[in-house]
Design brief:
The complex is a heterotrimer. By secondary structure, chain A is of the alpha+beta class. Chain A has 3 domains: about 150 residues, 2-Layer Sandwich (Aldehyde Oxidoreductase, domain 4); about 190 residues, Aldehyde oxidase/xanthine dehydrogenase, a/b hammerhead (Aldehyde Oxidoreductase, domain 3, Alpha-Beta Complex), CATH 3.90.1170.50; about 325 residues, Aldehyde Oxidoreductase, domain 4, CATH 3.30.365.10. Helix content of chain A is about 30%, strand content about 25%. In chain A, strands 3-5-1-12-9-10-11 form a 7-stranded mixed sheet, with helices on both faces. A 5-stranded mixed sheet of chain A has the order 7-15-14-13-8. The longest helix of chain A is centred in the last third of the chain and has 28 residues. Chain A is globular and about 90 Å long. The N terminus of chain A is likely disordered. Chain B is α+β, with helices and mostly antiparallel strands. Chain B folds into 2 domains: about 70 residues, Ubiquitin-like (UB roll) (Roll), CATH 3.10.20; about 80 residues, Orthogonal Bundle (DNA polymerase, domain 1), CATH 1.10.150.120. In chain B, strands 2-1-5-3-4 form a 5-stranded mixed sheet, sandwiched between helices. The model of chain B has no long low-confidence stretch (mean pLDDT about 95). Chain C has 3 domains: about 45 residues, Uridine Diphospho-n-acetylenolpyruvylglucosamine Reductase, domain 2 (2-Layer Sandwich); about 120 residues, Uridine Diphospho-n-acetylenolpyruvylglucosamine Reductase, domain 3; about 110 residues, 2-Layer Sandwich (Enolase-like, domain 1). Chain C contains 12 helices and 14 strands. In chain C, the strands form 4 sheets. Chain C has a 5-stranded antiparallel sheet with strand order 4-5-10-6-7. A 4-stranded antiparallel sheet of chain C has the order 11-12-13-14. The longest helix of chain C is centred in the C-terminal third of the chain and has 26 residues. Chain C is globular, with a radius of gyration of 19 Å. Chain C starts with 6 loop residues before the first strand and ends with a helix. The chains are: A alpha+beta, B alpha+beta, C alpha+beta. Chains A and B meet through helix 1 and helix 19 of A and helix 2, helix 3, helix 4 and helix 5 of B.
Chain lengths: ~775, ~160, ~290
Amino acid sequence: MAEIVAERYTGASIKRSEDPRILTGAGRYVDDIKLPGMLHAAFVRSPLAHGLVLSVDVSAAQVLPGVVAVLTGADLEAMTVPGPDPLMALLGWAGPTPEFTLLATDKVRFMGDPVAIVIAESRYLAEDGCELVEVDYDDLPPVVDAAFALDPSSPPLFANLGDNIARPHSRHEFGDVAGTFAQADRVVDVHIDVHRHQNVPMEGRGCVASWDAGRAAMTVYAATQSVHITRTGVATRLGIEPDQVRVLAGDIGGSFGLKIGASREELAAAAASRHLGRPVKWVEDRGENLIASGQAREESFDVRAAVSHEGDLRALDVKTVIDTGAYPGMGMGAMVPDIMEAMLPGPYQLAALGFESTAVITNKATYVAYRGPWASETFVRERVLNLVAKDLGLDPVEIRRRNIAARTDPPASMITGRPLVGVTSKESLDRVAQLLDFPAFRRRQVEARAQGRYLGIGVATFIEAAPGPRGPDGALGSESMRLRLEEDGIVALFTGQMPHGQSHQTTLAQIAADEFGVPFEQVRVVVGDSAVVPFGLTGGSRSATMTGGVTLHGARELKAKVLDFAASLMEVSAQDLLITDGNVWVRGDPASAIAVSEVARRAASGQFGADVDAALEVEATFDGGQGGWSGGTHGAIVEVDAETGLVTVERYVAVEDCGALINPAVVEGQIRGGVAQGIGAVLLERSAYGEDGSFQSATFMDYLMPTTCDIPRIEIEHLETVPLDADVNFRGVGEGGMIVAPPTVVNAIEDALSPFGVRIYEQHLPPARILELIAAADPG
Amino acid sequence: MADITLRVNGATREGSPEVRKTLADFLREDLDLTGTHVGCEHGVCGACTVILDGRAVRSCLMLAVQAAGREVTTIEGLATDGGLGPLQQAMWDSHSFQCGFCTPGFVMQATAFLADHPDAGEQQIREALSGNICRCTGYQSIIDGVLLAAERSRDIDREG
Amino acid sequence: MKLPPVEYEAPTTVAGAIDLLAEQLDEASVLAGGQSLIPLLALRLARPALLIDINGLDELSGVSVTDGRVAIGAMTREYVASESEVVADAVPLLAAALPLIGHEAIRSRGTIGGSLAHADPAAELPAVARALDAEFVVRGPSGMRVIPAAQWFEGYLTTARRSDELLIEVRFPAAKRGTGVSFAEVARRHGDFAIVGLAVSLVLSGEVISDARLAFAGVSDVPVRATAAEDLLVGERPSPELFDEAARRATDDLDPPADLHGSSDYRKTVAAAIVRRGLRAAADNARERQ
């Protein structure tokens, strides 16, 4: 062979390594796990939103044939270590910390609150057992809306707090808020509500917990975004040394932020396993997933915008209340205001920002992280821009053009601190405007209106810290990875990433294959074993940059090490060696090639002395390098049927900048999935509570998921990015679609309904609501 | 309990499920065919779809005992000698899936649909798959996989 | 969401099924397609002591025509009915409604009789049966009864079938010359139950409407015939003004239920739009079929 050419994987839509097993039913999800002696758990759950638990009688359940044990909240307290979710401590929460038992003991705080766990030979029998547990409740007045939760007279859900405040009121100001508002030509004052909706992965939460009494060790087969964080949760609550807890995860059926740490139910199952000395499986059913797993986004905003007559958005003053539900979980609800505040300016030049927030506790399921937890900042900002544009008679694209920060050197900064380095928001907005052809659309819109049809167009722009550039405090955290050249020549990457649809098994192998010089098939990504992989979490859209980066740099380090070893094998200088296509060879001499696998075999043979480093393994860390923003602009054309309120999304375009693409098909899949969730949120999905706190969307007949007939083809264009780092310009893209799709669609719907004078101050627009808005509006 | 015999993926299988056990649970637990997934247990999400006597059905809405004497095909039964069938290959090529939990239902539903409608266009395919829910993909890549499979199948017919 | 404990029988004859029903009465549920019943069991909202699985009763399947009536066996699968040329030709309103029922996999198992015996007022088939004055043939220990649609639907999920009776077949009148049909519905998504639906069957004799049948789904606890609108339409020529007035008359007295998907007012408003659209579509269909 005259020349050995390396194949370039990065940037190509390499077929996924995950798919052969996924497509043939050979994936291994938690519910597929069967262990000898395994038992099944189900939970007795509160039918009330708020109540005292007077008594729990398990006697009938205990004697049902097939039921092995019934454990109450009190039983579980005796066998676990009380305390808050360890994740709250991990995330540094210092605010109000409710005290509560693992399962409800004296009080239930939301409909679905677990009260007892029934363990039986089958899930069928466990559910039968649950029906036989008799719980005597005394109703308490439910706290079902933020207004009542804020009222000091509302009954406190948690005795140790004395009120229903999850995060006390705080206010921060950036720039001269009062002065900017005083000098504004106009102040626009609106109230915007975002409704409660939820993650709904196709696989619910669940685990198989298996206690080995002989070794006093717990193994948990989990569905989780981080085996280490789950391990911490289990170890802390069960009072086990962390190194005696092993968490294993295989395939995971989606999560979108839901499956982090260990839920109360999973901890109860683990405690039950230890108590019984047998493996216990708990996999939630869809009812539990909808009622009890957690919900997100119930946030209200009072917004004041200081604007000029020409449409300059000079300042925003935002006051938000977050409804965090009953139990804090990892505390996402109380912490999300900080991220919202930081991101609220987006890629726009604000002179000042005021942001105040309160988070309240209510008799509802826990507020959890849901793909882009801070997304409402984009919804509020992008809606306000359109509302201001309407007030001033401006075009929505023009008002954005006017206010978007251009890319300058040095970069402009967001008023909240982070630099807008490399940001391509303006380019994305211009491109979306071009793709949608506004003038042509406006002509079509006029013609359609003459026929009684209502078409609308909307755009929205956003940036996403995935992880974004360094802020003033510098830190992005870091990611570590262990890379090893295995004896058989496989380059193994041990990562704490826990893919649940993100295709890391493929994308990280692409990067490593390119950097190291082996075929794609010669890289194996090892995930999902807390005994083997370093700490990590798949979340926050960090993995493309952080894990992509540590893979790139780690592969280089490993390659250098391997070349040093090969140099001593081949008796040449390491600088003269190359690795391409799985072979090590001397530059200019293809005949010298030795297979990497042969090099590895020699290294593992143990025949080398201390002077030769034959341990072909490195531990790499990466601190994010010179990161940049992900972001872009989305646009939609919708049609609203003004007689029925049904909305069709006719066209949807996304122009995105997510840096250098590792695998375009994977990137586009992430974007489309996020957009689908955003469309779902606006048109279909709502976690509905009644006035008495009863949960009303507990099946898929009431919690409506978008289907093939609801999501159009989504046209995606990638912007040529501005590279900021010498090597690592991959940026995350996982959350962007879900962040920017809701305002994109709502903007389009409002545009469609502008003949009626409709203005929209909310995110959920089912058909009945659309007709209400039309009826209430004033076309004059 | 009821003793039943049925054909699953071309093999004769037996079991003694409780009469209330669904076909989905029977396949997964009694026959160790965990490829069929359970996503909602009330017949809406389609993850449990299998093919029964040539028709796609929701296995969570059938009792195992009702499948006695019937011919069931699950996702494990589509792979030709350990490889991928043409639809599966087209879906691999199209990056159809992400987390994979909905996949068996989509593959079985699409298999049944394409068998009866080999020339279906995009809108028909969307309607045919509108009873299967995916949370990860936004559906486009799945539709593309089905369209690609149909196109390849037509190409083969033309060449043959 | 596992099913609760339940006994199970799979009779091999209609007589055997009736014997079981007579024995168990309200303690038994008949398991036909299972697409409505199994979810109720999974949610533990239904707790029968016995399931009587009638899927083995082959004689209850089939589509036949006798004396200008199309008889559809209760166990005829929805997909079979939708592929039937007899149904397409002679009961076009049924053919129009069938593709709207759920999804492919639902129609693989769901049955004509099962859906009509379950009698969900938001479902398509009850509205079709009510519009066409279908006849329900039941058999019990005391013999056969034929119940007209007007009497079949008694209340929410409640029919005139007695606990010891089995629905055997449903008979639809064969469509006359000049028939035009439509099934219009507003649903949240493709395949969902109708928030409001309307089955329309018109007969155009020349340009004049000589027969008009309109039945709503989703506006009450049973399908509802819009008789005031029907009376208006007969003898008139189709026109937008006529259809507007028909919509007013059809919806004036409606007091639809409210739920998560729509308030009562919403359903009423939408019902009027559906009447206009449904009548237009049926009139167009009549001209096409001529």
